[in-house]
Automatic annotation (TrEMBL):
InterPro entries: Kinase-like_dom_sf, Prot_kinase_dom, Protein_kinase_ATP_BS. PROSITE patterns: PROTEIN_KINASE_ATP, PROTEIN_KINASE_DOM. This is Protein kinase domain-containing protein. Residues 16-105 form the Protein kinase domain. SUPFAM superfamilies: Protein kinase-like (PK-like).
Length: 105
């Protein structure tokens, strides 16, 4: 599967507009999106293993650390799809950083 579910301008979750796809992982797809209020966010669409992923995200919602992205909310759209709304951090993916620095960061 090379295509992402959503493209620029799509609004899969009320209040958020997709700007571009960021990546895909084992639990779903991540998009760079803008809220109606202008906040830049990472919008994760949960695909597989929804219960497991949402349980893990829920446990992280109150963590505060300069080394972790902030999870703002978990919401469902009108179709019942689960979305995680997180702080957006630009730059290369963690996977790319680790590939470029195999001895560690």
């Amino acid at each position: 599967m090379n295509e992402f579910q959503y493209k620029h301008g799509d609004r899969p979750l009320e209040g958020y507009t997709i700007q571009r796809a960021v990546g895909r992982g084992g639990f779903g797809e991540v998009y760079y999106a803008i809220s109606d209020g202008g906040r830049e966010v990472a919008l994760k669409v949960i695909g597989s293993y929804e219960q497991t992923e949402l349980r893990g995200v829920s446990q992280c919602m109150n963590f505060k650390s300069p080394h972790l992205v902030t999870v703002f909310d978990i919401r469902r759209n009108a179709a019942g799809r689960a979305f995680v709304i997180m702080e957006y951090v630009g730059g290369p993916s963690l996977r790319k950083l680790l590939e470029e620095s195999p001895s560690g960061l």
